[in-house]
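Technical note accompanying the year-one report. For the benefit of new consortium partners, we illustrate the data format agreed upon in the data management plan: each record pairs a sequence with a structure-token string. No post-processing was applied to the example shown here.
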Amino acid sequence: EIDLIQMRENPVPILESFGVDLVLCGHSHCYVRSFLMRGHYANSTSLTPSMILDNGSGRSDDTGAYTKFTTGPTVNQGTVYVVAGSSGWATSGLLNHPAMYISWLRMGSLVLDVDGQTLQAKFLRENGDIDDYFSIIKVDSMLRVTALRQAADSMMLTWQSLPGKQYQVAHTPELTSPIWNPVSGSIP
């Protein structure tokens, strides 16, 4: 554990300072994948909720892809860590680190596709099944609502816009399983 802590205390802050999106490791014969996170450098008991920037699955058809902003106060923050060392065999071991979204002793390989600002990763099993997948998407800016005013039967939103960008306002009656309905056309 001491060597692992030294790796987290020394190289990981450097990787994070340069906005690294994905760190791939091997050696351990397993497949584990972290949440999108930042600032976790010591042992597993030192993990705090603020270090996990997105505790979702990273799946666009589930909780949404992991998003990294290329501008603004959180520019390039967040890294996903994957140990994909089980393409030849899977061995035993404790898979109980709280920073991991998935921890499996299963054979397979990680396949990466990068297209522009989108990285898609799939854990492809030896039998052809895809057991895990996630995406990291880089976006130009974060929409910032600057004012919200509600009247008896209307609502007015004001936001900081960017030249050349198109916006659309939508609403949903429930955030648990949202179905978004547009209430405006395209707004330049």
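Partners are asked to follow this layout when depositing records. The first strand starts at residue 22 and ends at 25.
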